[in-house]
Amino acid sequence: IKEAKLFGAVNIAASAEDRQFTYVPPQSGWKRSADAAYLHYCANETIGGVEFSWIPETGNVPLVSDVSSTFLSRPIDVSKFGLIYGGAQKNIGPAGLTIVIVREDLLGHAPKGTPTMLDYKVQADADSMLNTPPTWAIYVAGLVFQWLKRQGGLAAIEKLNIEKAKLLYDYLDGTRFYHNPVEPADRSRMNVPFTMRDAALDEPFLKGAKEHNMLQLKGHRSVGGMRASIYNAMPIEGVRALVDYMRDFERRNG
Asked: Where does CATH 3.40.640.10 sit in the chain?
């Protein structure tokens, strides 16, 4: 929002701040601008673990979405969007590569002063090679695409992601030792935050997890607690191992 304000007027159509960003506000309550150039939303919010399970209806207003952390985790109807973009670093490949899909009629409308490399019409005309592309990142992305096809495509990977998320959420919902604050219908399949009944146990939990070769479970500094990121590359065996460790930690500290 801060960056968007550098280029034009910004209207915040909806916010979940009233409940500490733990749900997706129903579209019926959104306060949209009548003359909006586009509507932008983030499909999956990684810090709080909140994900849109539906695509907003915007009529003739182009819909734009940041899909960085949910791209390739499920099928998506690209025809409903004016533009979608996503960094590769979650489900596609190394950081440094961004994938952008733009509706052709939206090309060629960059405002005066837009840097050439950010003008999608110029990029499209140059077949995405206006400058030397990040060849290694593109090569790795290609390997990931081939791997996804071998798994059965996006429908198959979505089924697996649902199974992984359900395994972890079912355990969280069945205990009072851990807690996930997100509205069940809006829970992320990719990022699962949780806290413990006693925050003093956070460090012992992380220390024990590391001893079991489970890393990067510390939650974002703005919310604390823990966060399990279970992107496409995380096998279901890894989620089972985490649940087993959490169950054992609860038994010893509950």
From this structure: 4-150
Q: What is the SS3 string spanning the chain?
A: CCCHHHCCCCCCCCCCHHHCCCCCCCHHHCCCCCCCCCEEEECEECCCCEECCCCCCCCCCCEEEECCCCCCCCCCCHHHCCEEEEECCCCCCCCCCEEEEECHHHCCCCCCCCCHHHCHHHHHHCCCCCCCCCHHHHHHHHHHHHHHHHHCHHHHHHHHHHHHHHHHHHHHHCCCCEECCCCHHHECCCEEEEEECCHHHHHHHHHHHHHCCCCCCECCCCCCCEEEECCCCCCHHHHHHHHHHHHHHHHHHC
Distances (CA, A) of 104 to 50, 121, 140, 154, 232: 30, 9, 27, 24, 30
The pLDDT profile of the chain, 254 residues, written as one tens digit per residue, is: 999 998 889 999 999 999 999 999 999 999 999 999 999 999 999 999 999 999 999 999 999 999 999 999 999 999 999 999 999 999 999 999 999 999 999 999 998 889 999 999 999 999 999 999 999 999 999 999 999 999 999 999 999 999 999 999 999 999 999 999 999 999 999 999 999 999 999 999 999 999 999 999 999 988 999 999 999 999 999 999 999 999 999 999 98
pTM, two decimal places: 0.94
The domain defined by 4-150 carries CATH number 3.90.1150.10: no
Stretch(es) of the chain classified as CATH 3.90.1150.10: 154-253
